[in-house]
Amino acid sequence: MIVPLSTTLLAASVLTASPTALRRAVQQLDQAAFEEAQVRDDTATRAFSDTAIKTSGGKCLSVDQLSGDFRANLTPVQVTACNSTDGQKWDIITSGKHNNQKRAMLVVSTLTQACLNFDPRRAAGNQVNLFSCGGRADGGGEQTDSQIFDFAGGAGPLALALKNDAGSCLAVKGNVLDQASCSEGDATQSFTFG
């Protein structure tokens, strides 16, 4: 069977193309609502500041603040090529206003100051996002287990095990961060800070 060169090249480009970034949900943030909802905790203890979170495949967790709502809540976490932009910088908070648990961490976007969040009530594939730390959309919450992850210290590799869904870990699925049953040695569940 003879296949035209153009068909072969098209198929190769589709198979090797990088995953595309998610669509932007808003054109701009409501600045007053954003500033109320996403407040930096300057009293927090940070194990890491402005650090990348790398996957086992060498990509980085990344956010686009306009892919969530007008406050930068419900922002999906994407997996993209590492590029040192602000959307790929994270703080790992081990104690503070929104984390009062030992051997635990919050993962906070330094771009938006929103926390990595797991909400099992949302539709599958849309359960992992960024949300106001403390769990209230307006930023008024204190602590919520949906944003607390086990943390024994160190840069990893480590799994991001969920406090509010025992036996579940965050995992790379395509070009987004999602959840799956924890499985030791699963490369999609292995992350490194730095």
TrEMBL record:
Record's signal peptide: 1-17
UniProt keyword Signal present: yes
Keyword list, A-Z: Signal
Signal as UniProt keyword: yes
InterPro entries: Ricin_B-like_lectins
CDD domains: beta-trefoil_Ricin-like
Name this protein carries in UniProt: Uncharacterized protein
Organism: Endocarpon pusillum (strain Z07020 / HMAS-L-300199) (Lichen-forming fungus)
Organism phylogeny: Eukaryota, Fungi, Dikarya, Ascomycota, Pezizomycotina
